[in-house]
Design a protein that fits this description.
The protein has 301 residues and is α/β, with parallel strands linked by helices. The strands form three sheets. A five-stranded mixed beta sheet has the order 4-3-5-12-6, with helices on one face. Strands 9-8-10-7-11 form a five-stranded mixed beta sheet. Strands 1-2 form a two-stranded antiparallel sheet. Strand 8, helix 8 and strand 9 form a beta-alpha-beta unit. Helix 1 crosses helix 3. The protein is elongated. The termini are far apart. 30% of the residues are buried. The mean pLDDT is 89.
Length: 301
């Protein structure tokens, strides 16, 4: 298959029309149409269904688009590695992690990284879905469980637990619960037990809901749970890493917590020598070490 024809096919499939692809490629519609027809003839198949609203990939077109999309990601990664300087850290790094961890722990610490590397471009992708690092959906992942793929470099950062927290104002007004049975007189704020979240958090929520809790507020991420707790709406199920940046949170029923959740940083083996990835990895590691020291000092006091 001709590489240039594949490049044009990918642009058309991505844009969904000859016109939009032409704008991207700076080619005329007729030139693009000729290249697509030639590619279809060389493969002896039809790649697009044509209709008034644009182009739709055939089953064979979908297969080829999947291949060109993978090729594009690999080429982007290779170009980024080639651009990596021995002395400078710059360019884009795509980081994926959960909404809660990315919003509440990682993002507030990024000024330290940007101060050291002001030309770095970070694409922070916050979602519960696990992106495929091997397929170049992201460069680095911070996950709440150990990655299963064998071709990833991984580093265990820390362990966290889900615990119960409330604001001082809420507890002053509604009283401090001592036992789980006391939760029946309070509002529980948590992620839905069926929502995408770390398994330990879901197990804890399921256990808490077996008690006679008359009022609940469910939010689909920990950022929302935190905001509700800080606004005195009730008692929230939150990860313990929040206490470092929100010291006013009061822990409720201290003997109740989830199982331990490991936090891993991972990236593909092919990015082992990337200066951008190394800079991000070292930044996160330093921040975790500082965080753990503060936690240890707090526990000792």
């Amino acid at each position: 298959m001709d590489w240039d024809k594949l490049r044009i096919f990918h642009a058309v499939a991505d844009a969904g029309s000859l016109t939009h692809a032409g704008d991207t490629l700076h080619l005329s519609q007729s030139a693009i149409s000729r290249q697509i027809r030639a590619l279809e003839e060389s493969l002896n198949t039809t790649l697009f269904h044509r209709h008034a609203r644009g182009l739709i990939l055939t089953e064979q077109g979908e297969l080829l688009f999947e291949a060109t999309r993978s090729m594009n990601k690999r080429l982007d990664a290779t170009a980024a590695r080639i651009r990596d300087s021995e002395d400078e850290v710059y360019g884009e790094i795509r980081v994926t992690t959960t909404t809660g961890f990315g919003t509440l722990w990682l993002a507030p610490r990024l000024p330290t990284l940007y101060e050291k590397y002001p030309d770095l471009k970070i694409d922070l992708m916050l979602e519960e879905r696990v992106l495929d690092l091997a397929m170049r959906e992201a460069d680095v992942a911070i996950r709440m469980k150990e990655p299963s793929q064998a071709d990833l470099i991984r580093r265990r950062l820390m362990n966290i637990r889900m615990r119960l927290y409330a604001s001082p104002e809420y507890l002053s007004e509604r009283g401090m619960p001592v036992t789980l049975e006391d939760l029946s007189n309070h509002r529980l704020i948590c992620q839905s037990a069926n929502a995408a979240q770390v398994q330990a958090g879901g197990v804890l929520v399921q256990h808490l809901l077996t008690y006679d809790i008359r009022s609940t507020l469910t939010v689909n991420n920990y950022y929302g749970v935190l905001q509700a707790v800080r606004n005195n709406l009730g008692i929230g199920v939150l990860p313990d890493y929040l206490t470092d940046d929100f010291p006013n949170l009061v822990r409720v029923i201290p003997d109740v917590e989830s199982g331990e959740v490991p936090v891993f940083l991972a990236y593909p083996e092919e990015l082992r020598h990337s200066k951008r990835v190394a800079a991000f990895r070292d930044f996160v590691t330093d921040e975790v070490i500082a965080y753990r020291k503060r936690q240890a000092a707090e526990s000792a006091s």
